[in-house]
Design goal:
The chain is an alpha/beta fold and about 425 residues long. The protein is about 40% helix and about 10% strand. It folds into two domains: about 70 residues, no CATH class; about 350 residues, Rossmann fold. The protein contains 16 helices and 14 strands. The strands form four sheets. It has a seven-stranded parallel β-sheet. α4 packs parallel to α16.
Length: about 425
């Protein structure tokens, strides 16, 4: 390291301009990224460069200030950055009791009804939920966890928030594997970040963010389309390659064999997830739902004409909340289901037609089945907003839906959605 300046007794050698900038940048990184205390910074500097044995705390402070003043460190303040809302613990306890959940996270946010009409409010809601869900995930992801993800904005923001959290607060959780649970749609939604910003909703993209949050996480990209042209083609996609990761038969075989999700897998090994993070969507004609947004995308072309007809039918019978139904068709991991509200309020002839479209679409989807979710020990759902209340409630009321067992173990949602879910439960109890 070059030194300049007066070499009189008692005077410490000065750094030359190049070394000064390098050292200032290094110290700024230790302060802002590694979050080291001043004593730890001094110790690291002296260990790595013996020539800095003379450095003291005041020099570290001056170099850090130099980094701030000269543009080495640049501060970006975003007034629209996502915020982390407070939690409503009373509602959390009530949800756990009412729907027999293992855990609930309720965000104290506004804008629930606005999500019906405003894409900005809808995106803000998803980002707020993502912030709280990331905090929760940080407490439950363990060594060698096999984490499976669905598509959706709430899932994306949860993964992105966990990555951002780990930039400053790293956790030494190793052996994590991250995999998608459905094929890619290539649909995007407008983001609150700027008038031109868009967010992709594919699980492969969310998985990339989540994998970067852990030191040595392995990302398994499915790189599959969301749908194929005919049901006969499904098995071909699931028999080999990345499709085996979502094959119902492979999952069943693994569980029968009692294969442990530990150790280093072979290149062709497939593990049943130990943790799933999923969103719940509501297919509405005017919404940011990925099937609606991607209606004219090539990857969704395989679902036509049934998809278009289904959306028209939903709009004609439930648009503007007609027939007391805000959401007639929901989705879980891109697999569609008719909501309890629709089953109760829509005419039988409409339900029969709707069921035919849902069945035809589901038969062509490259996505895990509801039965596969039974096999996952921990399923975390992150979803909220007025567009999704009927869909969320239907998934929680698994017995009324005719499912064999609960699918959801933990729920992260907003305050108003929680209130409406609890009101629906109380109404059922009074009628019973």
């Amino acid at each position: 390291m070059a030194i300049t300046g007066d070499k009189r007794r008692g005077r410490r050698p000065a750094l030359d301009p190049t070394d000064r900038r390098r050292m200032a940048a290094r110290i700024a990184k230790m302060v802002l990224v590694d979050r080291l205390e001043q004593k730890e910074i001094l110790l690291q500097l002296k260990r790595s460069e013996p020539s800095l044995a003379h450095i003291d705390a005041s020099t570290v402070s001056r170099l850090y200030r130099f980094a701030l003043d000269t543009g080495i460190v640049r501060v970006h303040i975003d007034e629209n950055a996502p915020f982390k809302p407070a939690r409503v613990e009373t509602l959390e306890r009530e949800l756990v009791a009412a729907y027999e959940l293992q855990s609930a996270i309720v965000a104290d946010t506004t804008g629930h009804d606005e999500t019906l009409e405003s894409s900005l409010a809808d995106d803000q809601m998803h980002q707020a939920l993502g912030q709280l869900c990331a905090d929760y995930l940080d407490t439950i992801v363990r060594q060698n966890e096999i984490v499976a993800l669905s598509s959706g904005r709430a899932v994306f923001y949860s993964c992105e928030s966990l990555f951002n959290k780990h930039i400053f607060d790293k956790r030494n959780v190793r052996g994590v594997k991250v995999v998608s649970m459905n094929g890619n749609i290539a649909a995007e939604v407008w983001s609150m970040e700027s008038p031109d910003a868009r967010r992709a909703m594919d699980a492969d993209i969310s998985g990339a963010w989540l994998a970067r949050a852990f030191p040595d996480a392995q990302l398994i990209r499915l790189s599959l389309p969301v749908a194929v042209k005919s049901p006969d083609m499904i098995q071909d996609w699931l028999d080999e390659g990345p499709g085996r990761w979502i094959s119902p038969q492979v999952w069943k075989d693994k569980l029968k064999q009692g294969v442990a999700n530990t150790g280093k897998p072979d290149d062709d090994e497939v593990y049943v997830p130990t943790l799933a993070l999923v969103g719940i969507g509501g297919v509405r004609a005017k919404s940011g739902h990925r099937f609606i947004v991607g209606l004219h995308e090539p990857m969704l072309g395989n679902l036509q004409p049934e998809l278009g007809k289904m959306i028209d039918l939903i709009e004609s019978h439930t648009g503007e909340g007609r027939n007391g139904v805000s959401c007639a068709v929901g989705d879980l991991c891109n697999r569609l289901f008719i909501t309890l509200a629709a089953k109760k309020n829509l005419p039988k002839i409409v339900l029969i037609e709707l069921e035919s479209y849902v069945k035809s679409i589901n038969e062509r989807l490259l996505s895990i089945t509801f039965e596969q979710l039974y096999m996952v020990p921990k399923v975390v759902v992150v979803a909220g907003g007025a567009t999704k209340v009927d869909a969320i409630r239907s998934v929680l009321e698994w017995q009324a839906m005719g499912w064999e067992q609960p699918i959801v173990h933990d729920l992260c949602t907003d305050k108003e959605t929680a209130i409406r879910l609890l009101e629906a439960k109380r109404n059922i109890s009074r009628r019973g």
